[in-house]
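SEQUENCE-TO-STRUCTURE ENTRY
===========================

Backbone structure tokens: a row of integers, each naming the local backbone shape at its residue.

Task: work out the structure tokens from the sequence, keeping to the layout shown below.
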Amino acid sequence: MISLQMVIELVGKGVLTGTIDMSNEVEFQISATVTANKNGETDVTVNSLGVKHEEAVKIGASAEASLRLSAGPELVVWPMPGIPITFMPKIHAEAKAKGTIQHPSSSPCLYLEVT
């Protein structure tokens, strides 16, 4: 007995990885003066000289993907008695892609100073 059929196989694989790093920093500048005299009276003066705020964000991502198409005939021969014998010649076509995205932390729009 003999069997002949066409076989087409499509296999797709992919990986996506990424990281996000964030940091915040705040610096307060305050000046205070306290004056106390012998009578027990006190005078307190507090001034805010400003607040400095800084934040940073780093973003990184990478992706990798592949697509493979295989096509060809499959011939199966069943000898009587015996085990089947299979012949599978195939043609393969493969496409691969790889990419990386990075956003540095030195972005000028993420710096804020308030006075």
Notes: Residues 2-114 form one domain. Confidence is low (pLDDT under 50) at residues 109-115. The radius of gyration is 36 Å.
